[in-house]
Amino acid sequence: MTTPEPAVSVVVVDSSVSLKWVLPDEDHIAGARRLRRAVVRQQLARHVPLVWQHEIVNGLLVAARRHRLSAERTHTALDYMVRVPVTVHAIDPQLLYRTAMRYGVGGFDAAYLAVAEALRAPLWTGDRRLFNTVSAAAPCVCWLGGFPAAPAAGPDGPQPA
Predict the structure, then answer these.
(1) Helix (H) or strand (E) holding 12
(2) Are 35 and 79 spatial neighbours (Cβ–Cβ below 8 Å)?
(3) 42 exposed, middle or buried (CB, 10 Å; 0-12, 13-18, 19+)?
(4) What confidence tens digit (pLDDT) does each residue in 49-69 have?
(5) Residue 57 belongs to what domain range?
(6) Which letter does DSSP use for residue 13 in this model?
(7) What is the chain's alpha carbon radius of gyration, rounded to the nearest angstrom?
């Protein structure tokens, strides 16, 4: 008799979480790193919209220009981030627009929300503005400070300060 493989949970992870893997002066680094380890160990299957690639490169460029990372460390950080298993999704522009309008967010944030809704998966974020804007209307949005807890939009979930 063989033991069935445990089901892998699907998660959507925004760029704010990914950048916390490599920026040492960010908050909630421990939660971000626990999430990364769970993906690397194949306990979680990470999904992102196509815009994630642009956002992490931009975040690293800004960090380098603000002397938060050296140029050499920035290149290493990018490699470290993209080696983590991920499924990238293109989003239909009409769906992206409808999602942005429904939640009152910009196109980048709407892309993560659209992927999470399509997959019926939690969206983990370390972006306080996004969490505070949509968590009441979008229960799939989870605050990184609560990882690996249940979605933060629940009545007992941790809330950002």
Answers:
(1) strand 9-13
(2) no
(3) exposed
(4) 999 999 999 999 999 999 999
(5) 9-146
(6) E
(7) 16
